[in-house]
């Protein structure tokens, strides 16, 4: 944890220990770890003299921040009504089975985080999956396998 606190210190000193740079500091930490580790937030709180609860408030306000470890690749399966009717749950089940995790979790190797969403606004082409920012339409079990094959290689 020592290395981590050194890194966090360097992120903060980059902004001259300014409280107003909190958002930028959190962005740097998120970028480094792919989430905001609690230890890092405690260090930020101590160094900037900002209550931890306020930092967590900021971290939970912005969806780009995560307090839970996240994978290198985020896979989002739409379970909105249209995608649900077209087989979204089957797609989700296959991702869960192949990755051996449930929705809302991250694989142990931190390669994948699996999430669900209520609608992505493109219902006509469902069931829709977003993997690493790329949209996949009319997905099937075969699509699940090809997505995993593509991102496992990287
Ligand atoms: S329900 Fe899936 S995109 Fe709208």
Share of helical residues: 40-55%
**What is the fold-level CATH name, i.e. the topology of the largest domain?**
Glutaredoxin
* Strand count: 4
Q: SSE order, as H and E? A: HHHHEHHEEEH
Helix count? Answer: 7
Low-confidence stretches: none
Task: Please outline the major beta sheet.
Answer: 4 strands, mixed
Give the CATH architecture of the largest domain. Answer: 3-Layer(aba) Sandwich
Tell me the fraction of residues in β-strands, as a range: 5-15%
**Strand ordering within the main sheet:** 2-1-3-4
Shape: elongated
Query: What count of structural domains?
Result: 2
CATH superfamily of the largest domain: Glutaredoxin
Report Rg: 18 Å
Mean pLDDT: 93
- Give the class from helix and strand content and strand pairing: alpha+beta
The CATH class of the largest domain is identified as Alpha Beta
End-to-end separation: 28 Å
**Which ions, cofactors or small ligands are bound in this entry?**
FE2/S2 (inorganic) cluster
